[in-house]
Specification:
heteropentamer; A mainly alpha; B alpha/beta; C alpha/beta; D mainly alpha; E alpha/beta; B: Rossmann fold; 4-stranded antiparallel sheet; 10 strands; 26% strand; E: alpha/beta; binds adenosine-5'-triphosphate; binds magnesium ion; cell membrane (chain A); transmembrane (chain A); L-valine transmembrane transporter activity (chain A); L-isoleucine transmembrane transporter activity (chain A); cell inner membrane (chain A)
C-alpha cells in the first residue's frame, strides 16, 4: 500500500509537470489549430532565464525563497516575451497559409531555439540550484514526497484552477473562446483577434516558464534539450485530455504521469513510454476527441 | 451617416467592387439587391473592415474608417449579420448572444436585451442551452440576427437575413427590422435576395451588378421598374 | 393520380433523439416512382434531420427506412453507412453547401461518378485499356451533366470561385453523377432571387424527366414548392402535422398556423 | 523615418531577449558570473539591419502575392505548357537525366554518397506525400515504417542470411502490413489526433527496437549489413556506392511514375476529395476507411522499401536513426517542397537533406542555420517551394479518344 | 537546374581542403557536435584543437602543419557515414572519432576501405575491438566489459554487497555496461541482481524508479549511463533517504556530475580511467584548456586529447602518412598522454589504459585504493 502511494505521488508530480506544459499546447492549439512544437523550447528558455537570474541573485546574497520568486518572475517575463516574438515572426506571417506550413515553421523554430541556447550557453548540463524551501510539515513523509514535489503539485493545481476561471469568466477568456471557434465572426463582434492570439502565446509561454523553473529546481539540472522530451510528453498529455480543453490538459497530464509511474513500479520502466503511447492510442480509439475534448460540431 | 466613396475592393486580382458610391442617412433602411456574385457581401465586409478596400473611402459620421481594424469599427456601432451566419458552434445560444454584447459593459442592459431577443424568437429560448452548431439552419439565422441586435448597433448590416427561414418567420423578421428602425432609430443596411420584400421594407434601394451600382432610387420606383421586375422579382 | 406507381422510398415511424430532444417523432413518408415530393415545416422542425436519417449520416433511433429502387421488393437501409446508401441509389445535396472547394467543377462531378466506376489502384498505375476507357467515360459523363445544369462554361473553374447559385446547381450535378433513383434536395433555392428560383424549378423538372428519377425536396419558398411538387409532407417539432396535395396542405389550418401565416405572397 | 524607429525598437527588443541567454553565463557551483555583453550588442546591430531586410521582404511578399495572383493564369499556363508540351519538357528531362547519370563521374564519392541519402529521402518524401499531400492524413510517425523496412533487412540478414534482393520486397510488404495494422484502428481519428497517434506509434516502434535487446540487439544496433550485390558488379566500396546510386535513381523514377499515375486517377481524386470534405465524400459513395487505408498503407510500403536500402547503405542500423525528428524532417520535405507537388517534394528533399551537408562549413552553427532556413522558407513561401498544379482535364481530347475507340 | 548551384560551394570547399593535402596533415574529428548528444562530442573538438595548436606552434609534424576537419554526425549512423565519406573525400590523414559506438560502427567500414586509422576517445562497445571486424580502429578508453567487471567485482568483493539493482539508460553505452555487470554478478553465484531496468533519458522525474529500487530491497545500485541521469537518480534517492551505495561508470565520472548532483554526489562510486591527475600531461592539457575556456573540460576531453596526441605522434614516428606505418607506430611506440603512457594492442585497445574505482569525497573524485 505504501508502495502504491509512493508511486501515486511520484506520478502526481510527473503528471503536474506535464500538465503545466500541456496547457500552452492546448491553448495555442485551441486558438489557431497549430501544434506549437517550439513550446517545449520556450519552457527550456524559461528554465535558463531562471538559472541566470538565480545565479546572479545568489551571488548578490539574496535569500533562497526570494530568489525562487524572482527567478520565476523573470522566467515568466522572458518566456512570455519569447512566446510573443515567436508568434510574431514565425506564425503570424503564415495566417491563411496551408494548414501544415506553420507546423513546419514551428519545427524549424524548435531546432533553431535549441541550437541558439546550446551555442550561447553550453551543450553540457548545468547545475540548477535547489530553490525550494524545505517544508517542515513534510519532514515525516520525506520518503514519499519532497518539498519540491509538493511545490510542483500545489503550483500546478493553483495555476490550473486560476486559468480555468480566467478563461471562463474574464473578457479576454471569452474573446479567446470566440476566436478559437470562428475568427471572422470574432472580428465582427468586436474582438481584436491579433491581440487575442498574442495573449494566448504569452499566457501559454508564461505557464511553461513556471514549469521550467519548478522542474529545473526539482531535478537540479538543465540543458538545451530538456524542452524536447518534456514537450512531446506534454503534447501527448494535451491530446489525451482532449486538445483545446484546459481541464483536459490537466487530466491528460496526470493520467500520463500515473501511467508511467505505475508502469515503472509494477511492470518495468523499460516500457514506460510504450505504455504511455499505447494508452494514448487506446483512449483515442474509444474517445476520438480525447477524454474531455468535444468532437467539433459539424451540422450537416 | 455612412458614405462609400469610389470604393474598389479586390480578392487577390479579382476585382469584386468597382467604384462603389453608397450613402446611408441616419435612421434610414436601405437595401442592396443584385444577382448572385454581384458583390453585395463584399460591400458589407468592406464596411466592416474584414476585407479592406484597395482604394476609395468609407466614411462613418464623416470619419474615414476604411483603414481601421474590424473591432474598432464594431466599437463605433456597426454590427453585421454575416452571410453564412457564422455561429460559434461550441457555444450555447446564450453564450453566442453574450458574445454579441462583447463590447458592452452594462450587465443589466445586456440581460434586458437578451430577454427581449428571446421574446422575439421563442424557439431560441427553448433551445438556449444547446450548442449553436447543432441548431437547424433557420434557428442559426435567428440566432445570428439576435446576436447582432445584442450589440445595440447604430448601424445594422444584414446579409440575406431571410435565407433559409420559414415564410412565417421571414415576415416576422422584416417586422422586427422595421420596428427597431422605428423604435430605436437604428439605421439598417439590408442585403437581400428576396427583393420584393426587401424593397417593401426599405426606404431606398441600390441595385448592383458585377460589382457596380447600376441603379439607385426610392423603393417605390424600383418596385415599379420593369427591368427590375424582370431581373429580380421573377414576375 | 399516381396510385398505380411503385413506391421507391418508404419511411415508417422514424424517430431521432438528440440527448433529451426528440427531433423526429414517428414520421411516415413515402415517395413513388417519378414523383416530386416536398417536405416543409418551420425552422427546426426536423427536415434536415430527416434527410440525415435516411441517408445514413445519422441512424434513426426507431423506425424503418425501406427502399425499392428496382421493383424487386423493399430493402431496409437503417444503419447502413452513407456511402453504401449512395451506392444503393439515394443521392443528396446539402443545406449548407458542401462542395470540394479546391477541386475543379468537373472534378467535383467526377467524384460523384466514383461509386459507379471500378478502377483500382493497380489499374491507376498500369492504366490498362479498361481503366483508360472508364476514365474517359467518366469525364464525358460529367461534362454532359455539367451541360445539363448549365455549368459547362465553368468546368475548369475551382468550385469555390463559383457564384452561389452555380454552386447549388453543381451540388445537384454531383449528386446526379451517382446515378440515383431518388434525389434529395435540401433547400436548393436558398440564396437565389425569385428569377433564379423560377429557372431552378424548370431545371428540376427537366432533370427528373431526363433521368427518370424521383425527387424529395426541402424548401421554404412556397411558390416553388406549390408549383413543383406532387405531394407535400409537413413537419412541426419533429411530428408530421399534415400531408397531401399542395392544394390540400395549403388549406390545412394547422399548416397555416404553424408555417405559412395568413397570406401566401412571401 | 518610421522604418528607422521600428528597426531601433527591434534592435532593443532583441537585445532584451538575448540578454539572459547570450549575455550572461552563470555557474552556480563556483558562483561565478561571466558577462558577455558584447555579444548582445552584436545581436542588436544585426537585428537593426535585419529588420530592414525583413520588412522589405515582407512588403515584397505582399506585393508579390498580388502580382502572383495577377499573373497566376499566365504562370500556370506557362508552367503547365512546359510540363505538358513534349517539345519543352523532353529536353529538360533529358538534361536532368544526363546530369543524374553522369553525377558519379563528376563528383567525389562523398557527393555521391550524400546524393544517395538525398534520393532515399526523395522516395520517402514522395511516399509520405501520398499520405499527407494527396490524402491529407497528417502522419508524424512515418519513420516507423522506414524502421520496419530497415530492421527487416538487418534482422533477416542477421538470422537467416537473407540477401538484399529478397529483403527489398519483403521489407516493402512488411511496411504495408504495418500500415494496415495501424491504419485500421486509428484512421477514424480526425486531423491532428491522427498526427499524435502516429507519432506515438513511431515512438513505440523505436522503443521496442531499443528494449527488445535479445532480438534486435537493442541500442547497440546491428552492424555489418551487406551492401547489395549485383552479379558481382557491385563489389568494393566505391563500386557498391555507385551501384546504389543508380539503383536509387531507378527507384526514384519508379516512385515518381507511380505517384504521378495515382495522383491523376480515380483514386487520387477520391483522396483529394476526402481531404476537403469527408461527409460530402461519403455522401458521394466513397468508402472513407478503405480509401484512407489504401493511402496509408501505400505510403508505408514505400517507407519499408527504402528502409531496406537505408540499412544496406549505412551497413548498420540502430534505433537512433528512427527518432521523431526524422519523421519531422520527412514531413518538412513534403510541406516545404510544396504539398502534393511531385517536383516540389523532390526539390524539398534535395534542399533539406543536402543543406545540412553543405552547411558543414558552418560547423556548429549548422543546425541553427538549418532551423532558421526552415522558418524563413515557410514564412516567405507558405505554399512551399513549388506549388502543386493540377492537371487540367481536356474534354475535347477525351471526346476524340473515346470517339476513336468506339468507332 | 537547382542541383548544380548547390554543388558549387561544397566543391570549392573540397578543393580548398584537398589541394594542400600534400604538405598538411588533416585530422578528421567526426562526432556529435549538435543535437542532444553534442555535449559528448564537443569537448573532443576542443581537445583536438588544443593538441593541434600545440603541435603546429611547435613547428608541425615533420614540418607539416596539421589542420582539423570537424564533421558533425549527431551520433546518428547515417550522418556518421556521410561524415566518413566527407573525410575520405577530403583526404583526411587520420581520424579522431567517432564519439558513439553505433555511429562508429557505421562509419568504420568506410575508413577501412580507404585505409584510414581511426581512434575514438569514447566508443566503448566491446565488439569494436574484440570482433576483429575493424582492424583500423583504436581507442583511448577501455571497453565496457572491463569497466563492468571492475564495477561489479568492486561491489561484490570490496563492498560485500549481495543484492544489487542494475539500472541503465537504455543507451548503447549504458545498457552495454549494465548487461555486462549483470552477467558478472549472476556468474559470481554469491550475489544476485535485485532489479534490472532501463530508465528513459531526459525524463522529468525518476522518483518512480527510485521507489522501485527501494521496494526491491537492493543494497546497492549499479548504474550504466551518463551523468545527467545518474545525478537525477542519485539526488532523488538521497532525498528519499536512501543511503545505499551508488556505483557507476565512466560516463558519470565527470566533474559535471559532482557539480550538478551537489551534496548527493558525496560517496558515489564511479569507475574511470586510472587516476590520471598525477600525470604531467594531464596538467598540461588542463592548463591549456583553462587558458582559453571557462569552466571545466567536458566529457572524454582527456581521452580525446590523448587520442589526438597518439595519432599525431604515430604519424611523426612513422615519418609518413602511410596506413601500415601509422598502425605499426601506434602498436609499437609509446606516447605520453594525459591518460598515461600508452600504446595499443593488436585489437586496438590501449595498453596502459585501465580503470580504477573512484569515490566522491568532499566534492572531488578520489581513487579508492
Ligand atoms: N474569398 C474570396 N476570394 C476570391 N473571390 C471571392 C471571394 N469571395 C467572393 N469572391 C468573388 O467576389 C464576387 C462577389 O462576391 P460576393 O460574395 O460579394 O457576392 P454576393 O453579391 O454577396 O453574392 P451572393 O448573392 O451569392 O451572396 C464573386 O464573383 C465572388 O466569386
Ligand atoms: N446533432 C444535433 N444535436 C442536437 N440537436 C440537433 C442536432 N441536429 C439537429 N438538432 C436539432 O433538431 C432540430 C431539427 O433540426 P433540423 O436541422 O432537422 O431542422 P430543419 O427542419 O432542417 O430546419 P431548417 O429549415 O431551419 O433547416 C433543431 O431544433 C435542431 O436544433
Ligand atoms: Mg452574398
Ligand atoms: Mg434544414
Amino acid at each position: 500500500m505504501e508502495y502504491f502511494l509512493e508511486l501515486f505521488l511520484s506520478g502526481l508530480t510527473r503528471g503536474s509537470i506535464y500538465a503545466l506544459i500541456a496547457l500552452g499546447y492546448t491553448m495555442v492549439y485551441g486558438i489557431i489549430e497549430l501544434i506549437n512544437f517550439a513550446h517545449g523550447e520556450i519552457y527550456m528558455i524559461g528554465a535558463f532565464v531562471g538559472l541566470t537570474v538565480a545565479g546572479i541573485l545568489t551571488s548578490l546574497g539574496f535569500p533562497a525563497a526570494s530568489i525562487m520568486v524572482m527567478a520565476s518572475m523573470a522566467a515568466v517575463v522572458y518566456a512570455a516575451a519569447y512566446g510573443y516574438t515567436l508568434e510574431k515572426i514565425a506564425y503570424r506571417p503564415l495566417r491563411g497559409a496551408p494548414r501544415l506550413s506553420p507546423l513546419i515553421s514551428a519545427i524549424g523554430m524548435s531546432i533553431f531555439l535549441q541550437n541558439y541556447v546550446m551555442l550561447s550557453q553550453t551543450s553540457d548540463f548545468l547545475s540548477f540550484p535547489s530553490l525550494t524551501p524545505e517544508f517542515d510539515f513534510l519532514e515525516n513523509y520525506s520518503s514519499m514526497i519532497g518539498s519540491s514535489d509538493f511545490l510542483i503539485i500545489v503550483v500546478a493545481g493553483f495555476v490550473m484552477v486560476a486559468l480555468n476561471l480566467f478563461i471562463k469568466f474574464t473578457r479576454m477568456g471569452k474573446a479567446m473562446r470566440a476566436t478559437a471557434q470562428n475568427r471572422k465572426m470574432a472580428m465582427l463582434v468586436g474582438i481584436n483577434v491579433d491581440q487575442v492570439i498574442s495573449a494566448t502565446f504569452v499566457i501559454g509561454s508564461s505557464l511553461a516558464a513556471v514549469g521550467g523553473v519548478l522542474i529545473a529546481s526539482h531535478i537540479g539540472q538543465i540543458n538545451f534539450f530538456i524542452g524536447f522530451i518534456a514537450g512531446i510528453k506534454a503534447f501527448t498529455a494535451a491530446v489525451l485530455g482532449g486538445i483545446g480543453s484546459i481541464p483536459g490538459a490537466m487530466l491528460g497530464g496526470l493520467i500520463l504521469g500515473w501511467t508511467e509511474s505505475f508502469c515503472t513500479g509494477y511492470v518495468s520502466s523499460d516500457y514506460e513510454d510504450v505504455f504511455a503511447f499505447a494508452l494514448l492510442v487506446l483512449i483515442l480509439i474509444f474517445r476520438p476527441s480525447g477524454l474531455l475534448g468535444k468532437a467539433p460540431i459539424q451540422k450537416v | 451617416m455612412l458614405k462609400l466613396n469610389n470604393v474598389n475592393t479586390f480578392y487577390g486580382n479579382i476585382q469584386a467592387l468597382r467604384n462603389i458610391n453608397i450613402e446611408v442617412e441616419q435612421g434610414e433602411i436601405i437595401t442592396l439587391i443584385g444577382a448572385n456574385g454581384a458583390g453585395k457581401t463584399t460591400t458589407l465586409m468592406t464596411i466592416s473592415g474584414v476585407v479592406p478596400p484597395r482604394s476609395g473611402e468609407v466614411l462613418y459620421n464623416g470619419k474615414p474608417i476604411q483603414k481601421l481594424n474590424p473591432d474598432k469599427i464594431v466599437k463605433m456601432g456597426i454590427s453585421q449579420v454575416p452571410e453564412g451566419r457564422l455561429i460559434f458552434p461550441d457555444l450555447t445560444i446564450t453564450e453566442n448572444l453574450d458574445m454579441g454584447a462583447f463590447l458592452r459593459d452594462d450587465k443589466d442592459g445586456v440581460k434586458e436585451d437578451m430577454d427581449h431577443v428571446f421574446e422575439l424568437f421563442p424557439i431560441l429560448w427553448e433551445r438556449r442551452k444547446q450548442a449553436g452548431g447543432n441548431l437547424s439552419g433557420g434557428e442559426q439565422q435567428m440566432l445570428a440576427i439576435s446576436r447582432a441586435l445584442m450589440a445595440r448597433p447604430k448601424l445594422l448590416l444584414l446579409d440575406e437575413p431571410s435565407l433559409g427561414l420559414a415564410p412565417l418567420i421571414i415576415r416576422q423578421i422584416f417586422e422586427i427590422i422595421k420596428k427597431i428602425n422605428k423604435e430605436s432609430g437604428t439605421t439598417v443596411f439590408l442585403v437581400e435576395q428576396n427583393a420584393n420584400l426587401a424593397l417593401k421594407t426599405a426606404h431606398r434601394g441600390y441595385v448592383m451588378e458585377n460589382g457596380e451600382i447600376i441603379l439607385s432610387d426610392s423603393s417605390e420606383n424600383l418596385l415599379a421598374n420593369e427591368e427590375i421586375k424582370k431581373a429580380y422579382l421573377g414576375l | 393520380m399516381s396510385n398505380e406507381r411503385r413506391t421507391v422510398l418508404e419511411v415508417k415511424g422514424v424517430c431521432k433523439d438528440f440527448g433529451g430532444l426528440r427531433a423526429l417523432d414517428d414520421v411516415d413518408l413515402d415517395v413513388k416512382e417519378g414523383e416530386i415530393v416536398a417536405l416543409i415545416g418551420p425552422n427546426g422542425a426536423g427536415k434536415t434531420t430527416f434527410f440525415n436519417c435516411i441517408t445514413g449520416i445519422y441512424s434513426p433511433t426507431f423506425g424503418d427506412v425501406n427502399i425499392d429502387p428496382l421493383g424487386g421488393g423493399f430493402q431496409r437501409i437503417n444503419g447502413l453507412k452513407t456511402n453504401k446508401i449512395t451506392e444503393l441509389g439515394m443521392a443528396r445535396t446539402f443545406q449548407n453547401i458542401r462542395l470540394f472547394p479546391s477541386m475543379s467543377v468537373i472534378e467535383n462531378v467526377m467524384i460523384g461518378c466514383h461509386c459507379r466506376t471500378k478502377a483500382t489502384f493497380l489499374g491507376a498505375i498500369f492504366r490498362d485499356p479498361r481503366t483508360k476507357r472508364e476514365e474517359r467515360e467518366t469525364i464525358l459523363k460529367s461534362y454532359e451533366l455539367l451541360k445539363e445544369l448549365g455549368l459547362d462554361q465553368f468546368s475548369d473553374e475551382l468550385a469555390c470561385n463559383l457564384p452561389y447559385g452555380a454552386q447549388r446547381r453543381l451540388e445537384i450535378a454531383r449528386a446526379l453523377a451517382t446515378d440515383p433513383f431518388l434525389l434529395l434536395l435540401d433547400e436548393p433555392a436558398a440564396g437565389m432571387n425569385p428569377q433564379e428560383t423560377l429557372e431552378l424549378e424548370d431545371l428540376i423538372v427537366a432533370i427528373k424527366e431526363k433521368h427518370n428519377i424521383s425527387v424529395l425536396l426541402i424548401e421554404h419558398d412556397m411558390k416553388m414548392v406549390m408549383s413543383l411538387s406532387d405531394r407535400l409532407f409537413v413537419l412541426e417539432y419533429g411530428r408530421e402535422i399534415a400531408h397531401g396535395t399542395p392544394q390540400e396542405v395549403s388549406e390545412n389550418p394547422a399548416v397555416i398556423k404553424a408555417y405559412l401565416g395568413e397570406d401566401l405572397d412571401a | 523615418m518610421e522604418g528607422l524607429k521600428k528597426s531601433i525598437l527591434a534592435a532593443l527588443w532583441f537585445m532584451f531577449l538575448t540578454l539572459p541567454i547570450m549575455g550572461v553565463f552563470v555557474n552556480t557551483i563556483d558562483k561565478s558570473i561571466t558577462w558577455r555583453l558584447d555579444r548582445v550588442l552584436y545581436v542588436g546591430v544585426a537585428a537593426f539591419f535585419l529588420s530592414f531586410a525583413w520588412r522589405y521582404m515582407m512588403n515584397r511578399k505582399e506585393v508579390g502575392k498580388k502580382q502572383e495572383e495577377e499573373s497566376t493564369e499566365e504562370q500556370v499556363t506557362a508552367y503547365s505548357k512546359l510540363m505538358t508540351n513534349p517539345k519543352f519538357y523532353y529536353p529538360l528531362i533529358i538534361a536532368i537525366m544526363a546530369f543524374a547519370l553522369l553525377f558519379p563521374k563528376l563528383f567525389s564519392m562523398y557527393q555521391v554518397n550524400i546524393m544517395i541519402s538525398a534520393l532515399i529521402y526523395v522516395v520517402l518524401g514522395l511516399g509520405l506525400n501520398i499520405v499527407v499531400g494527396l490524402a491529407g492524413l497528417l502522419d508524424l510517425g512515418y519513420v516507423a515504417f522506414y524502421a520496419v523496412g530497415a530492421y527487416s533487412y538487418a534482422l533477416m540478414n542477421l538470422y537467416w542470411g537473407v540477401s538484399f534482393w529478397i529483403a527489398l520486397p519483403v521489407g516493402a510488404l512488411l511496411g504495408a502490413l504495418c500500415g494496415i495494422l495501424l491504419g485500421f484502428p486509428v484512421l477514424r481519428l480526425r486531423g491532428d489526433y491522427l498526427a499524435i497517434v502516429t507519432l506515438g506509434f513511431g515512438e513505440i516502434i523505436r522503443l521496442v527496437l531499443e528494449n527488445w535487446g535479445s532480438f534486435t540487439h537493442g541500442p547497440s544496433g546491428i552492424a555489418n549489413i551487406p551492401r547489395p550485390d549485383f552479379f558481382g558488379l557491385a563489389s568494393g566500396l566505391s563500386n557498391s556506392i555507385y551501384f546504389m546510386y543508380y539503383m536509387m535513381l531507378v527507384m526514384v523514377l519508379f516512385t515518381i511514375f507511380i505517384v504521378n499515375r495515382l495522383k491523376n486517377s480515380r483514386i487520387g481524386r477520391a483522396w483529394q476529395a476526402l481531404r476537403e470534405d469527408e461527409i460530402a465524400c461519403q455522401a458521394m459513395g466513397i468508402d472513407k476507411m478503405k480509401t484512407k487505408l489504401l493511402a496509408f498503407s501505400l505510403g508505408a510500403t514505400w517507407a519499408g522499401l527504402v528502409g531496406v536500402v537505408f540499412a544496406a547503405k549505412t551497413s548498420f542500423v540502430n534505433p537512433a536513426s528512427f527518432t521523431f525528428l526524422e519523421s519531422a524532417i520527412i514531413l518538412s520535405i513534403v510541406v516545404l517542397g510544396g504539398m502534393g507537388s511531385i517536383l516540389g517534394v523532390i526539390l524539398g528533399a534535395l534542399v533539406l537533406i543536402l543543406l545540412p551537408e553543405y552547411l558543414r562549413a558552418f560547423s556548429e552553427y549548422r543546425m541553427l542555420v538549418f532551423g532558421a532556413t526552415m522558418v524563413l522558407v515557410m514564412v516567405f513561401r507558405p505554399q512551399g517551394l513549388i506549388r502543386d498544379v493540377r492537371k487540367r482535364i481536356d474534354i475535347s481530347a477525351v471526346r476524340k479518344a473515346l470517339g476513336g475507340a468506339h468507332e | 537546374s537547382g542541383e548544380k548551384k548547390e554543388e558549387s560551394p561544397a566543391k570549392k570547399e573540397t578543393a580548398e581542403k584537398a589541394a594542400p593535402a600534400a604538405e598538411t596533415i588533416i585530422l578528421g574529428v567526426p562526432g556529435a557536435q549538435s543535437g542532444d548528444l553534442a555535449s559528448y562530442g564537443l569537448p573532443t573538438v576542443e581537445a583536438a584543437k588544443l593538441v593541434v595548436k600545440a603541435v603546429n606552434d611547435a613547428g608541425g609534424i615533420n614540418g607539416a602543419q596539421v589542420v582539423i576537419s570537424t564533421q558533425d554526425d549527431q551520433c546518428k549512423p547515417e550522418f556518421a557515414t556521410n561524415a566518413a565519406f566527407k573525410l575520405v573525400s577530403d583526404k583526411a590523414t587520420v581520424v579522431l572519432g567517432h564519439i558513439c559506438s553505433g555511429a562508429t560502427k557505421a562509419a568504420m567500414p568506410i575508413y577501412k576501405e580507404s585505409n584510414i586509422v581511426c581512434m575514438s576517445p569514447s566508443a566503448t562497445n566491446p565488439a569494436l575491438t574484440q570482433s576483429g571486424d575493424y582492424p583500423n580502429f583504436f581507442r583511448t578508453i577501455a571497453s565496457d566489459d572491463a569497466q563492468a567487471a571492475l564495477a561489479s567485482k568492486f561491489a561484490m568483493e570490496k563492498l560485500g554487497l549481495k543484492n544489487i539493482a542494475v539500472i541503465h539508460d537504455k543507451g548503447d553505452y549504458g545498457k552495454g555496461f549494465a548487461e555486462f555487470a549483470k552477467k558478472y554478478i549472476e556468474e559470481s553465484g554469491s550475489s544476485k541482481v535485485a532489479l534490472f531496468e532501463g530508465v528513459t533519458p531526459g525524463a522529468v522525474d525518476y522518483s518512480a524508479v527510485v521507489q522501485k529500487i527501494k521496494a526491491s530491497g537492493a543494497d546497492a545500485v549499479i548504474f550504466g549511463g551518463y551523468h545527467p541521469e545518474a545525478s537525477k537518480i542519485v539526488s532523488q534517492m538521497r532525498k528519499k533517504k536512501m543511503t545505499i551505495p551508488f556505483i557507476s561508470d565512466d560516463g558519470v565520472k565527470a566533474k559535471t556530475f559532482i557539480d550538478v548532483a551537489g551534496a548527493a554526489a558525496e560517496g558515489v562510486y564511479a569507475t574511470g580511467p586510472r587516476d590520471i591527475t598525477g600525470n604531467p600531461m594531464y596538467k598540461v592539457a588542463l592548463d591549456q584548456y583553462k587558458a582559453s575556456n571557462e569552466g571545466e573540460p567536458g566529457a572524454f576531453f582527456f581521452e580525446a586529447y590523448s587520442a589526438a596526441q597518439a595519432l599525431l605522434k604515430a604519424i611523426e614516428v612513422a615519418g609518413s602518412t602511410d596506413y601500415d606505418k601509422i598502425v605499426n607506430a601506434l602498436r609499437t611506440h609509446e606516447v605520453d598522454t594525459p591518460v598515461g603512457k600508452i600504446k595499443f594492442d593488436a585489437k586496438g585497445d590501449a595498453i596502459g589504459v585501465g580503470f580504477s574505482m573512484y569515490q566522491v569525497k568532499n566534492g572531488e573524485y578520489a581513487e579508492v585504493k
